[in-house]
Amino acid sequence: MDMLIGGKHIAGDDREDVINPYDGEVIDSVPIAHLQTAQLAIDEANKSKESLVEMSAFKVSNKLFNVVDKLRQHKQEFAELLTLEVGKPINESLVELDRSIETLKLAAEEAKRIYGESVPLDAGLNGKGFFAFTQRLPLGVVAAITPFNYPLNLTIHKIAPAIACKNSVIVKPPTEAPLTVMKFCELLNEEFPDGVVNTVTGYGSEVGDYLVCSPDVDKISFTGSVTTGMMISQKAGMKKVTLELGGNDPMVVLKDANIDDAVRGVINGAFLNAGQVCMGVKRIIIENEIADEFAEKLVGETEKLVMGNPLDSKTTLGTLISEKAAKQVEETVNNAVKDGAEILTGGIRDGAFYSATVIDNVREDMDLVVNETFGPVAPIMRVSSVEEAINVANNTEYGLQAGVFTKSYYDAMKCAQEIEAGTVFINKQSTFRTDNMPFGGFKNSGVGKEGIKYAVDEMTKTKLIGLNLR
Ligand code: NAP
Predict the structure, then answer these.
(1) Bridging pattern class, strands 446-447 and 240-244
(2) Does the beta carbon of 448 lie inside 6 Å of ligand 1?
């Protein structure tokens, strides 16, 4: 597939294969853009800005709704491509498509709600006799840099609100899984003037970095790892930046919890998308009294997962994004075992597959839980009180989301108030998001919020207009 810049398809000289992690087959190839091509995309996006500003909100909204219809029509085709490039089970890809359609719909609705407000200047000293109001204006050009794990929905979370508030966009998709995003941008381009939507493929450290440093890009909306996010925040200069970064989400299970619910929470939270989820359950912090029963039930349910061809609808555990990624998870788990942790089930790698793994007696100082382990691993950490559970939950540089399982409203509120995370769910695992909620972490998990309305806030600038009526 080729890049889309200013409405034209650009093939480039060098290309990179996109590999299916399940069978190692080449699915397609994309250009490795040079910096001149990234500059061309910046120029085209800047040239097209006015065409969007001149368009009524009514028209922008209708056009986004048209893309909703098109995406719905092509849902199965998009889901299959997603499965091929990411290795996620087809049923999970279909869920990502449903969510992508919903995210786009929310943006189409939000395009009609870009409100300003009247401001009572007479509430300030010397302000009597003025009439003042604010307008929310587009920033200009938004660059969206996105990761491989939910490439479509996470990209739509950036470019749909950006267009809803009349910004042109440049998308830098992940090199390992760029195709679904590029195909989606083609649908957008059918509706909007040339240059409103541009795609630039190539290495993040080159073209991504170029977009981040460019004075002609007005905002970077990034989702990815903490390491890349930190680099971006240092280089972006005066432009606005939103960073949606990694997570190391705790699931706190207190002794009065419904154990079956908590076990289901881990199955849906730690093994979804082969554990490659920012808000995945990455640490199970459980009170001693129920830990043995919980571990036994969790092992039983984990062993029911079906590893296989991700295109087969019976498969519930697909591959990781690459064999390299699976080897990294294998090494991290093996190191934890050397340090005293015990594998209760799983721990086996086969190419890019890593079996769903439950690992007990994990300590806070093990790499497995100090850093974000991006694979299907459920580490159990035993504690003896709610206070200790909260301390362990907070002993991390991350703070994306958290889940707490308990029947006590007192303990639920104590955990909700004291756990440092952007979201705390009670009796639900952290791996839950509706696409309209404010989403974004504390600490090193990020800066700013997404969830269409909140993304629009971050993609507009506020102008105040004051009339002197004295
Ligand atoms: P990543 O390595 O940081 O890559 C993300 C994107 O950044 C890719 O498009 C990458 O391009 C690009 N990039 C790499 N280096 C860059 C640079 N120096 N300047 C600009 N762009 C650069 O992350 P990943 O491995 O794809 O994704 C996994 C991570 O994302 C995990 O930590 C996960 O928790 C996090 N994540 C967070 C959220 C959230 O909403 N908080 C959601 C999903 C995932 P290339 O592909 O060409 O390297």
Answers:
(1) antiparallel
(2) no
157 lines ligand 1 (CB under 6 A): no
Query: What whole-number distance in Å separates Cα of residue 331 and Cα of residue 269?
Result: 22
Q: Is the CB of 191 under 6 A from ligand 1?
A: no
Q: What is the pTM of this model?
A: 0.98
Residues 417-454: tens digit of each pLDDT: 999 999 999 999 999 999 999 999 999 999 999 999 99
Q: For residue 188, give Cα distances in angstroms to 67, 68, 70, 185, 267.
A: 6, 10, 9, 5, 36
Most informative mutation of 278, 281, 434 for ligand 1 (most atoms within 8 A of CB)? 278
Span from the CA of 340 to the centroid of ligand 1 (angstroms): 32
145 CB within 6 A, ligand 1: yes
Q: What does the longest C-alpha to C-alpha distance in the chain come to?
A: 78
Q: Which of 181, 151, 164 is nearest to 114 (CA)?
A: 164
d(C-alpha 380, C-alpha 368), whole Å: 11
Q: How far is the CA of 376 from the centre of ligand 1 (A)?
A: 19
**Strand order through the sheet with 357-360:** 342-345, 357-360, 377-383, 281-287, 249-253, 401-405, 423-426
Instruction: Tell which residue, 429, 319, 401, 327, has the closest CA to residue 93.
Output: 319
Q: What is the dihedral of CA 341, 343, 346, 351, to 10 degrees?
A: 40
Residue from 205, 233, 401 to probe ligand 1 pocket by mutation (most atoms less than 8 Å from CB): 205
Q: Tens of pLDDT along 229-248?
A: 999 999 999 999 999 999 99
Query: Is 223 near ligand 1, meaning CB less than 6 Å away?
Result: yes
d(CA 393, CA 250): 6
User: What separation in Å is there between the alpha carbon of 146 and the centre of ligand 1?
Assistant: 6
